[in-house]
Design goal:
mainly alpha; 3-stranded antiparallel sheet; two-stranded antiparallel ribbon; 7 strands; elongated; disordered N terminus
Length: 502
């Protein structure tokens, strides 16, 4: 070759090689080819635990010895925070058998992005296949199982001494020069790596506020903003420093816009208008609060049962009026089931608002009549217990009262009248409190009173109390029967209890 041809040949570029050729030529030592990405062919060692493995991950991320774009023309540009976050997820698995769907759900990345980051961990020698996942026809896909590895470059860089052979080598010591770096890696491995934010949110946070050279906060100004409130002038820094005035349209003293926020036209009364599902749940909640036999029922179940009447525009008053017309059960075992039966033909029968209004009026009239009847009963009981005593209408009760009066008169004559010594009277009457008296009439009266109390009737004891006084009646019938009579009388006056005869 002549001297003239030599410079010309040097200026002609050589043929462009492929990406794989460039990777083989310029890659640093921190690269594991696909053939050595298996546990049986790997040159690294198995990490003893996830914490030690994360030390190696942080060392690879900070060393800069691996760049993904040197290996391929697509995918991530560097061993960045996303790769470290995926490695942290893998360190928590035992065994390390991650599914692609699991990593996609935890990281929010696409399937291809997750595969690229896992491939980075394999190419740096941090992961090695134990079993490679397969896809079977007609069956589920099997996930790959990995071994957490530490590359030999990590041991060489920190001066870690190992003993043994193969991937099961164990650490026996570390050089003094690598102890400080190992402490830093340990601090990084102990900290939890957060999920990286998206690029859009990162750009927004960076553009919202940035720090100047003097440490003061400087607000970013867009290209279309103006420095003066009148809109005149050009872009640039304001003469008033960081102070800026709002436009006139934002001032309270002028402008077409009002500083008071207006309610949306789509909202009625400031509240969002309920849709069909919302009306069902609202009616169900009101029914569980208004009806006693629906207390404790599931609101979603009641909403599903009452969906037909709720869609027809019924209110809780309309439902209660319909239940009054249909008839309510006294014993309820399952409230939602009973409500479904009672509302089966409600929309068909009361198909117009006029019919529902008529049913509501009749229900209100029945409610008012029941209220008046309760008031009348309470007044009657009050007058009977607080008014003057009246002769009982029962002939048997009258005979018992006459016998009691005759017995009292006989005793008064025997002791010489009531003006005699009261101690003698008490001594005679005290015999009534003792069990097993010899007087057959007193025993018979107590048996009759006990039978009346069992049936819920206190007329015999009431007559004795009104005629002879409570002390004499207590001596005659005993404290136990008197206490039971007072309990039945107080229960009869209560509107919360009803005493019936069987």
């Amino acid at each position: 070759m002549s001297a003239v041809a030599a410079p010309a040949a040097a200026m002609i570029p050589a043929a462009r090689s492929s990406v794989d050729d460039i990777a083989v030529a310029v890659l640093p030592a921190l690269y594991v080819p696909e053939a050595n990405q298996w546990l049986s062919t790997s040159t690294g060692r198995i990490a003893p635990d996830g914490y030690s493995w994360m030390q190696g991950v942080h060392w690879v991320a900070g060393s800069g010895l691996y760049e993904p774009r040197r290996c391929r023309s697509h995918g991530p540009r560097s061993f960045g925070p996303t790769t470290v976050f995926i490695a942290q997820l893998l360190s928590e698995l035992s065994p390390c058998r991650p599914g692609i769907e699991y990593l996609m759900r935890r990281t929010g990345l696409t399937k291809r992005a997750v595969q690229n980051h896992v491939q980075i961990l394999r190419e740096t020698g941090l992961l090695a296949y134990i079993v490679k996942g397969t896809r079977q026809r007609g069956g589920p896909s099997l996930a790959s199982e990995f071994a957490l590895m530490l590359p030999p470059e990590f041991d060489a860089a920190l001066g870690i001494r190992t003993a043994g052979e193969g991937t099961g080598r164990r650490v026996t010591g570390i050089a003094e020069s690598g102890r400080k770096l190992m402490a830093k890696l340990a601090a990084k491995a102990a900290r939890r790596v957060r999920r990286p934010r998206s690029k859009t949110s990162a750009k927004t946070s960076v553009g919202a506020a940035r720090k100047g050279t003097s440490g003061a906060s400087v607000t970013a100004v867009s290209a279309g903003s103006r420095c003066t409130p009148m809109g005149g002038g050009t872009d640039g820094s304001s003469t008033a420093g960081t102070t800026s005035l709002p436009p006139e349209s934002k001032l309270a003293s002028g402008g077409s816009q009002s500083p008071v926020p207006k309610k949306s036209k789509a909202k009625a009364g400031g509240r969002r208008k309920l849709n069909a599902v919302g009306r069902r749940f609202q009616l169900a909640r009101e029914l569980t609060q208004e009806l006693d036999w629906l207390r404790g029922c599931s609101v979603p179940r009641i909403a599903w049962v009452a969906r037909s009447v709720a869609d027809a525009g019924w209110t809780v008053t309309d439902v209660k009026a319909w239940l009054h017309l249909r008839g309510e059960a006294t014993h309820v075992r399952r409230g939602s089931g009973l409500l479904a039966v009672l509302l089966s033909n409600a929309v068909t029968v009361l198909d117009t608002p006029a019919k529902r209004a008529d049913a509501t009026e009749r229900w209100r009239g029945a409610q008012e009549a029941a209220r008046r009847d309760r008031i009348r009963q309470v007044r009657a009981r009050t007058e009977r217990h607080e008014g003057d005593w009246e002769v009982p209408s029962s002939r048997a009760v009258q005979l018992e009262v006459e016998a009691a009066f005759a017995q009292v008169q006989v005793r008064e004559v025997a002791i010489g009248g009531r003006s005699q010594d009261q101690d003698q009277v008490l001594s005679v009457d005290d015999r009534c409190e003792e069990p097993g008296l010899a007087d057959p009439q007193i025993d018979q009266m107590r048996d009759q009173a006990r039978g009346e109390l069992r049936r819920g009737v206190t007329d015999l004891i009431d007559v004795a109390v009104d005629s002879m006084g409570p002390e004499t009646a207590e001596r005659l019938y005993g404290k136990d029967l008197m206490r039971r009579a007072r309990q039945l009388a107080s229960a009869a006056r209560s509107s919360l209890m009803t005493i019936t005869r069987r």
